[in-house]
């Protein structure tokens, strides 16, 4: 017997109120009920990062968060990232543009999660959050290659576009 619950959230600036099975993940709600297909279902175990979205501004693996736990939250996916972070003349955010310019994608499957994770990661750096790559945890973090690789380590790319992903994130940060 499944339980249903009303969930309300704002997804990419649009309010939604949906009755969901209490076992439904944010990823499944987005993809199957709200037709927001940017976040991908890769492993469905929180290990690949293809489903990364911003939940109230913080990056999360949407496959691991229950929709009922995100009730009242603001969710930003790749589809809403440019609007949330100020689109340029081409309609892209600085991160999206940097990924294109640096050829930081191959098959593209992981790209929405990579870009959302990078957006959240850059906010963490801006807020001064330390990481395991820092020698001095009290110092302000810098988006160096080592720092970016450490902070983005939860996002996998089967094609191996990591060198270009790091360069794209560094360019967007600069």
Q: How would you sum up this structure, described in words?
A:
Keywords: 2Fe-2S, Iron, Iron-sulfur, Metal-binding, Oxidoreductase. This is (2Fe-2S)-binding protein. By secondary structure, the protein is an alpha+beta fold. The chain has 2 domains: 76 residues, Beta-grasp domain (Ubiquitin-like (UB roll), Roll), CATH 3.10.20; 86 residues, [2Fe-2S]-binding domain (DNA polymerase, domain 1). It has 6 helices and 5 strands; from the N terminus they run ββαβββααααα. It has a 5-stranded mixed sheet, with helices on both faces. Strand 3 and strand 4 form a beta hairpin. Helix 3 packs across helix 6. The longest helix has 16 residues. The N and C termini lie far apart (52 Å).
Summarize the SSE layout with pairings.
Blueprint: E1 4-11, E2 14-21, H1 26-33, E3 52-55, E4 58-61, E5 74-76, H2 78-84, H3 94-101, H4 111-126, H5 145-151, H6 162-173
Parallel strand pairs: 1-5
Antiparallel strand pairs: 1-2, 3-4, 3-5
Helix pairs in contact: 3-6
Strand order in the largest sheet: 2-1-5-3-4
Summing up helix and strand content along with how strands pair, one would put the structural category as: alpha+beta
Instruction: Name the CATH superfamily assignment of the largest domain.
Output: [2Fe-2S]-binding domain
Kindly provide the name of the CATH class of the largest domain: Mainly Alpha
Q: What is the element string, with H for helices and E for strands?
A: EEHEEEHHHHH
- Characterize the largest beta sheet: strand count, sense, and whether it forms a barrel: 5 strands, mixed
- State which percent range the strand residues make up: 15-25%
Radius of gyration: 16 Å
Number of domains: 2
CATH fold node name of the largest domain? DNA polymerase, domain 1
CATH architectural name of the largest domain: Orthogonal Bundle
| End-to-end C-alpha gap | 52 Å
Arithmetic mean pLDDT: 94
DSSP strand count: 5
Number of helices in the DSSP assignment: 6
Poorly predicted sequence stretches spanning 5 or more consecutive residues: none
Structural shape: globular
């Amino acid at each position: 017997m499944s339980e249903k619950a009303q969930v309300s959230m704002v997804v990419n600036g649009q309010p939604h109120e949906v009755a969901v099975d209490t076992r439904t993940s944010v990823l499944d709600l987005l993809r199957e009920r709200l037709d927001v297909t940017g976040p991908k279902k890769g492993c469905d175990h929180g290990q690949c990062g293809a489903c990364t979205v911003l939940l109230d501004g913080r990056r999360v693996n949407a496959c691991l968060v229950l929709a009922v736990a995100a009730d009242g939250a603001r969710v930003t996916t790749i589809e809403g990232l440019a609007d949330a972070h100020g689109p340029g003349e081409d309609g892209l955010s600085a991160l999206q543009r940097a990924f294109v310019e640096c050829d930081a994608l191959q098959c593209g499957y992981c790209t929405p999660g990579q870009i959302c994770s990078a957006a959240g990661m850059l906010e963490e750096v801006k807020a001064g959050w330390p990481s395991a790559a820092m020698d001095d945890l009290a110092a302000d973090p810098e988006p160096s290659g080592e720092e970016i690789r450490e902070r983005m380590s939860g996002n996998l790319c089967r094609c191996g576009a990591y060198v270009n992903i790091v360069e794209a994130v560094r360019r967007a940060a600069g």
